[in-house]
Description:
single chain, elongated, mainly alpha, Diphtheria Toxin Repressor, domain 2, Arc Repressor Mutant, subunit A
Amino acid sequence: MELHESAEDYLEAIHILKEKQGYVRSVDIASFLGVSKPSVSYATRKLKDSNYIEMDANGMILLTDEGKKIASHVFSKHKVLTTFFTSIGVKEKQAAKDACKIEHDLSDETFFAIKKFLKIK
Length: 121
């Protein structure tokens, strides 16, 4: 199943929040992405139906193995692109914003070429 950019953003946000605070709630995602709680409810329902996330009895959101795989890949692209842009003189805040815009459309071929160029394993 091909994911849309917004779904990848949600998975990436869940990944980042889990790493940062150890747990993820809908309200955390809403705050992180700057979206409404109803938007998060709609998106998480679709992600759950597609088997990318699970919710435990306490309402905590967890990535499935497939969700983790996608989130990790998108986040890796974000980090590498941010590193690349800063290495060519872009300020970090702008580099991160631009990376977020590009990470969804960047081909794996180009992504791996940038990693090779930056000597990132």
